[in-house]
From TrEMBL:
It comes from Brassica carinata (Ethiopian mustard). Monomer. It is an enzyme of class 2 (transferase). Keywords: ATP-binding, Chloroplast, Kinase, Nucleotide-binding, Plastid, Transferase. It holds the Pfam family DUF1995. This is adenylate kinase. The keyword Cell division does not apply.
Amino acid sequence: MASLSLCSAHLISTPSRSSLPTSSLSPPLSLFPSPIIRRNSSIFFAVTPRQIPQSFSTSTSLVKCCVKEPLKVMISGAPASGKGTQCELIVQKFGLVHISTGDLLRAEVSSGTEIGMKAKEFMNSGSLVPDEIVIAMVAGRLSREDAKKHGWLLDGFPRTFAQAQSLDKLDVKPDIFLLLDVPDEILIERCVGRRLDPVTGKIYHIKSYPPESDEVKARLIIRPDDTEEKVKARLKIYKQKSEAIISAYSDVMIKIDANKPREMVFEETKTLLSQINLNRMIKTDKASPVQDNWRGIPTRLNNIPHSRDIRSYFYEDVLQATVRSIKDGNTRLRVDINIPELNPEMDVYRIGTLMELVRTLALSFADDGKRVKVCVQGSMGEGALAGMPLQLAGTRKILEYMDWGDDATLGTFVKLGAIGGKEVDEEDDIFILVAPQNAVGNCIIDDLQAMTSAAGKRPVVLINPRLKDLPASSGIMQTMGREKRLEYALTFDNCYVFRLLYYAGTQYPIMGALRMSYPYRYELYKRVTEENGKEKYVLISTYSERPTPDQINDAFSGKSREESKKPSGIWGFLGSGFF
């Protein structure tokens, strides 16, 4: 089976599992047969397309792939919206060529080029440089080899509708137009509070980024443009021009709430740009069992046991999201999936389904030549308190007896272990941790920290972790250290989420579902019954971050996001014990 080349930093000089003789890969009788994708199964249906720009097609086809063409991005934002910071982060992450008209003008003038000399005449006379000169400079820069090869980020340009039309005539069209949105009062506060160090050129802010010493503070000055009067005038001009620009790029324009910490703003930006890159990937191996188009959420999820088609669908869905996330360089991942057979809070929970999911992931990475360590936590506590969570009872034995495809796989490409720093071997490439969780009065976090520290930059994937504190009456694992434990747990990024939604306190009927498959947004679906009695899931909202229960309530009741939220509602996450 062809798959993406992963974790190249940890390749080992041994033959890949897929290079073994075909005869040695014939699977014997299996305790849990390997999943088979049946694409024409009647349990799937089409869903409403994502409400995002047309260039963001919803194909999730993924095998050995390449990007057809580099990213082309335009970004706009009012003064003090954080545009400069986001440009720096975008360039660092995606390697785009940053193009600013101000930098271009200065470079052309200092180089003494013909176009630079023309621009200098206007600048010396105090006049604006004509559009045709600026457009010619931008077009020339975009035509250079580095911009063609690596893609470009056009910063704050075009500024007028006429400039946008001129670029369009030259076939300069962005894949996405990012608009950073910040309330006026916040922008004014950011500008008025800025201070410049004339010695270093560094920018400070009296509230959010004060100088590091009294010496620096004493020499700070206010820039002439950072008075409240001038800021308001600049904002007025920006708004007048931006309205026309927005209409020119409305089909690819995404408005981003930039009134947040820069890391949170960039997380949304990164997701959008990664999604464009992903959708440009082309499939090179048509024989691989992947979905050519995502076919929607399977139905009849309350029918237990789940059919092989349903289980295989989720195994493949989780696998593809995990592969994409690791390919993007993420190393601390978590998968949260709570279909009934994978939800320990329901009486239909099946440990075999969890083991099949783990095996699907492990074998896929092994097929790619990676050494995979599947880890199950051992006994916790001491003496009479020794034991392990009921959900994991017998897991290690089941893994040992499962069908791993051939005699050479288990023990060579896939090894079993516990959770802890001592379990990390130099030859390991990736670690899959099976439902790590705290027990009453005992915490798995210390073992997890030791393991991730020893793993370094190698991927660690948590499958259905439960990292919420479970304090005992003896006072063990109470509030002391809780903040640090929660902080560590948050270092794992979700690469896949699937949760069924019910009326609060019930397990029937299914009202909808929440799904996130990296690098896409969180998608909220409502389950509806059609006239012919068949059910389907309809997309009703998307989110850049995991929605709160109140946001879900509002979406189901049809309220807009601008309307006030109620403090509580009827919808609930089943299995809220998952951290």
